[in-house]
Amino acid sequence: MNQSENTINPAEIERPVFPDATNINKIAGKEIFITGYNVNRGKPNDYTNPDDIGEDGLTEYRTISTEKSFDLDIKGEKKTYNHFYVSKAVGKQVGRFAEELTNGKRFGPVKAVKRAKTDNPLQSYWALANESDEDYK
């Protein structure tokens, strides 16, 4: 076996194509079924908590895929979305079932809701409410 057969050239690796996604808050209160969950690393934005930026200068982005697509108007541009950026809290809720989602199951029905933090009620976070939660209605 020669040297080139044992070498992985990163320039020749196909880069993944990520679908368009928007924030989960754009579909707040709508009933959804989640069919996929992904975590990718990328460049932080203006809203990234500095504690979430790794030594490599990147942060984790969590996205869900929904069974239903939603026609949304984002900054004057109408597009159809079924991929949404989610918070760490939502990532924890859905991530426990990532393997099942990969195997074709769906998670839901749930609704994206904004909840007050228990340790500081003036701050809030996005979570998924299920049918037994008071804020699902």
Written description of the protein model:
By secondary structure, the chain is mostly beta strands. It is about 10% helix and about 40% strand. It contains two helices and six strands, in the order E-E-E-E-H-H-E-E. It has helices spanning about 90-95, 100; strands at about 20-25, 30-40, 60-75, 75-85, 105-115, 125-130. A six-stranded mixed sheet has the order 1-4-3-2-5-6. Strand 3 and strand 4 (about 75-85) form a beta hairpin. It is globular, with a radius of gyration of 18 Å.
Record keyword descriptors for this entry:
single chain; 137 residues; mainly beta; 6 strands; 42% strand
Taking Cα atoms only, what radius of gyration do you get, to the nearest Å?
Answer: 18 Å
Count of helical stretches:
2
What would the average pLDDT be, to the nearest integer?
A: 90
Fraction of residues in H or I helices: under 10%
Largest sheet: 6 strands, mixed
Head-to-tail CA distance between termini = 64 Å
Sequence of secondary-structure elements? EEEEHHEE
Tell me, what's the shape? globular
Strand order in space, largest sheet: 1-4-3-2-5-6
Stretches with pLDDT under 50, minimum 5 residues = none
What fraction of residues sit in β-strands? 35-45%
Counting DSSP E segments of at least 2 residues, the number of strands comes to: 6
Secondary structural class: mainly beta
